[in-house]
Design brief:
This protein has 459 residues and is an alpha/beta fold. It has 13 helices and 22 strands. The termini are far apart. It has 3 domains: 213 residues, FAD/NAD(P)-binding domain; 107 residues, FAD/NAD(P)-binding domain (3-Layer(bba) Sandwich); 113 residues, FAD/NAD-linked reductase, C-terminal dimerisation domain (Enolase-like, domain 1, 2-Layer Sandwich). α1 runs parallel beside α8. Helix content is 32%, strand content 25%. The model has no long low-confidence stretch (mean pLDDT 97).
């Protein structure tokens, strides 16, 4: 029976990052992953392949529709197999890189399914059969796609994001169930490539939970791009018959299409983990309860990422993984959940960090806000990318930045500055007084910070 200081179940962003940090801190570390390729859902069938498709489809769309504006004339033809190959090659390179990092850091890898068999004991079943003893066990098994009653997933015509990453042809009509991040990103991919896209969302807004000003602007822009939205729509069922699909929606006639993307969220992946052998009881939504240091109700067993409460984001899992193992070794590890950004890689991009305006109103927090449009930013104007704005929220008395929300070009990169500001307790004045290079998109962040006190320069 092999013995390790730390056994990690799951090699997604949280798990493999935790393994590397643990090895750096001197722990004899093992990681268990059922898939041959490391990196988890995010790298194999999530974040990375979807971004490869988003980039490729955006280039195709720009070449087809926007290049002429810049004096570039082109005859554009879609080569879908090559586009999909770009996605696959990207994934292959990165999963191979993680395998190399495991070897470099002398982390023992077990290929199979990990199951807790009692305190300090883990059984590996699959390609590698093993019984392990561990001083510490870390659960990092991520999440799986969830569905809704009446939707018959067939792994082809009616499928999840996994299937939508590899459609063999551009759908004539794609129905997306769910107007969250996954639905809008993958809906954007196939719409740019030529599909007619119809989105059904149960709530009365797209991107539920995001800042209301952002979602209002995004809805306007997405409709302009060609999306058809039905908000406040309850999907009763979806099924495929041959090459046709039928979607039933409450109060509407059945909708016929050739593919359905079910993007109704994700749920913790805890089935078969053996939690019952140590008395760990998941919460109602399936999450594993942990304390502020990621320890479960059982000493020596920890959990991070999508299996515990909080946003299901790869970078959250990474930070939790590092904080968890640092706590095990050094006695201290911390994640600031107020400074975790979220990004939607549509066109334009959408990014948020910290509090929303609705949330501040609900909690009775007095605040100030500054808004600056990309239309007034020189770099955005030169790029022909003037849709959207930057919005910064600050405490009315202290001026400390409470949140920020961006819709516009490179929003996912621009939000990092404000995340760092929140992490270090910056005020809007701090951001406004920091010199930002000209001409850059980042100047819109500075102007929004200036606008908090009503002194934006370029509007």
């Amino acid at each position: 029976m092999a013995n390790h200081d730390l056994v990690i179940i799951g090699a997604g962003p949280g798990g493999y990052v935790a393994a590397i940090r643990a090895a750096q801190l001197g722990l004899n570390t093992a990681i268990i992953e059922k898939e041959t390729a490391l990196g988890g859902t995010c790298l194999r069938v999530g974040c990375i392949p979807s971004k490869a498709l988003l980039t490729a489809s955006e280039k195709y769309s720009e070449a087809k529709s926007d290049f002429a504006h810049f004096g570039v004339k082109a005859n554009v033809e879609l080569d879908l197999p090559t586009l999909l190959k770009h996605k696959d090659n990207t994934v292959k390179a990165l999963t191979g890189g993680i395998a190399m990092l495991m070897k470099k850091n002398k982390i023992t890898r077990y290929e199979g399914t990990g199951r807790i068999a009692g305190p300090g004991k883990v059984v590996v079943e699959g390609k590698d059969q093993a019984e392990l003893e561990a001083r510490n066990i870390l659960i990092a098994t991520g999440s799986v796609a969830s569905s809704i009653p009446g939707v018959e997933l067939d792994g082809d015509r009616v499928g999840t994001s996994t299937e939508a990453l590899s459609y063999p042809e551009v759908p004539e009509h794609l129905v997306v169930i769910g107007a969250g991040v996954i639905g809008l990103e993958l809906g954007s991919v196939w719409m740019r490539l030529g599909a007619r896209v119809t989105v059904f969302e149960y709530f009365d807004t797209i991107l539920p939970g995001m800042d209301a000003d952002i979602t209002k602007e995004a809805l306007k822009l997405f409709k302009k791009q060609g999306f058809t939205f039905h908000l406040g729509a309850k999907v009763l069922g979806a099924k495929a018959r041959g090459k046709q699909c039928t979607v039933e929606v409450e109060g509407m006639e059945p909708v016929t299409c050739d593919r359905v993307l079910v993007a109704t969220g994700r749920k913790p992946n805890t089935e078969g983990l053996g939690l019952e052998t140590v008395g760990i009881v998941p919460e109602k939504r399936g999450q594993i309860p942990v304390d502020s240091h990621f320890q479960t109700s059982v000493p020596g067993i920890y959990a991070i990422g999508d299996v515990i409460p909080g946003p299901m984001l790869a970078h959250k899992a990474e930070d939790e993984g590092m904080a968890c193992v640092e706590r095990i070794v050094t006695g201290y590890g911390h994640v600031n959940y107020d400074a975790i950004p979220g990004i939607v890689y549509t066109h334009p991009e959408i990014a948020s960090v910290g509090r929303t305006e609705d949330g501040l109103k609900r909690d009775g927090v007095a605040y100030k806000k500054g808004v600056f449009p990309f239309l007034a930013n020189g770099r955005a104007k030169s790029m022909g990318a003037t849709d959207g704005f930057v919005k910064i929220l600050a405490d009315e008395k202290t001026d400390r930045v409470l949140g920020a929300h961006i819709i516009g070009p490179a929003a996912g990169d621009l939000i990092a500055e404000i995340a760092v500001g929140i992490e270090f307790g910056a005020s809007s004045e701090d951001i406004a007084r920091s010199c930002h290079a000209h001409p850059t998109l980042a100047e819109a962040v500075k102007e929004a910070a200036l606008a908090v006190d009503g002194r934006a320069i370029h509007m």
